[in-house]
Amino acid sequence: MKKLAWGLIGCGDIARKRVAPALRDSADCDFVAVSRERVELAESFAREFGARKWYSAWQKLLLDREIDAVYIATPVNLHAAQTIAAAEAGKHVLCEKPMAMNVDECDRMIDACRANKVKLGVAYYRHFYPVIERVKEIIQSGEIGEPVLAQINAFESFSPPTDHPRYWLLRKDRSGGGPMFDFGCHRIEMLTNILGPISEVRALTANVLFEREVEDTATALFQFERGTCAVLSVTHAAREPQDTFHLFGSLGSIHVPAWNEGTMQVTSDAGERVEAHSPDANLHAPLIRDFVGAVMNDREPAVTGETGKTVAQVEEEIYASN
Between the chain's N and C termini, which has fewer beta carbons within 10 Å? Predict the structure, then answer.
């Protein structure tokens, strides 16, 4: 069976932890090449993860005729230019989140991929969590009644020195924003996946603890077309890490204490129970499997460019409302 031949643009933290191992280990993937500005680091990364080629310039990787698809794992400000160039080179694109710096860039990325007849996916890997599918099933069953209020906390203490490899996340011209832009976007995608389209957005972004170009704390209030309200709170400033979800319905509730663990508590007229729906050991593996299936079967990925654009629209409203 033909495998999808991949090039990886960017060899940073997420590429090392999840993307490269997923490309290496998937039976449907052929991990061909990587690109990184320092060629000696590109070579060592390629050798570590089994890629056969390495490039110091991503533009050269796009000229490699062996490659069918690229995974873009670079700072957000590079996503649009790299995606458009990849599409024009005839490569399918799976792009890290957030998709782009703004909605206009998302539109140009979508248009380029459509014009060149290549697939475009965005790496909202939490879309594939079994616990999220289970939450949707319980809502659909009517067990907790009408969803009334959802609450999400996403807290990650983050204050790196200027020479830290992830310091770019604090530079607005490269990252687009602080924790609301970086990992708040994941939760926006999750909320819209669970509850549907958002109809109204209000928000507050602030620097509570740190003086920096981007916010260290933010809270967004959403109302969904179905009527449900939600509160999303994110911060770099709190010491205690959190990744929680609470959904209160008219007949019951669902509580997820840690998304990555997949355990949930359900309370309703049927009583109280705990369910376990663990994610894949490599959180990116289901995302990549789905994208490979989309290319091989000529269908849309589960998380499309339009999904990325929808999240970007909500993010623009959040920052505009402050």
Answer: N
Q: Which two tokens stand for residue 249?
A: 């319905």
How would you label 61-71 residue by residue, b for 16+ Cβ within 10 Å and e otherwise? bbebeebbbbb
Q: How far apart are CA 233 and CA 156, in angstroms?
A: 11
Instruction: Work out the number of other CB atoms within 10 angstroms of the CB of residue 129.
Output: 22
Rg (CA), the chain: 20
Residue 196 lies in a domain: yes
The CATH number linked to 206 is 3.30.360.10
Domain range enclosing 161: 130-278
Tokens of 69: 């698809």
* pLDDT exceeds 80 at position 141: yes
Residue 86 lies in a domain: yes
What whole-number distance in Å separates Cα of residue 276 and Cα of residue 264? 6
Quickly list H helices, 12-142.
13-14, 20-25, 39-49, 58-62, 79-88, 103-115, 130-141
| CATH code of 63's domain | 3.40.50.720
Q: How long is the chain?
A: 322
Domains in the chain, number: 2
pLDDT digits (tens, 9 = 90+) for 151-208: 999 999 999 999 999 999 999 999 999 999 999 999 999 999 999 999 999 999 999 9
The reply to whether 11 and 98 lie within a common domain is: yes
What pLDDT is recorded for position 2? 87
Average pLDDT over residues 33-41: 94
Look at residue 321 and tell me if it is in a domain.
no
